[in-house]
């Protein structure tokens, strides 16, 4: 094992999450203006950070000094059948500076296969990953 952290939540989305790394994350309901992060924000942050770090590692291994960007949108939806709950629709867009969309797609897909968060969610029917042209 390279790293481990445990998150403990006692208050749902109205309070904070304590981490075994001696940090804490304030939490708040997504439909209020309360200070704190909600699960949608944390999901989007986790995948955007992990996938882009993996893209950067692949670029470094190829001796390419290029910027990359991953933008993740996490939407909360109500299930169509009443009483069955909610789901996240998570959409990512990735781009790499100075490469064609096809060249970027190859690296993005390699990163998606290696990224730990991508591995966790890749079988979900409510995620999408699109490679787009670099836009400054």
Automatic annotation (TrEMBL):
Pfam families: OsmC. It comes from the Bacteria. One of its GO terms (biological process) is response to oxidative stress. Belongs to the OsmC/Ohr family. This is Osmotically inducible protein OsmC. It comes from Streptococcus zhangguiae. The lineage of its organism: Bacteria, Bacillati, Bacillota, Bacilli, Lactobacillales.
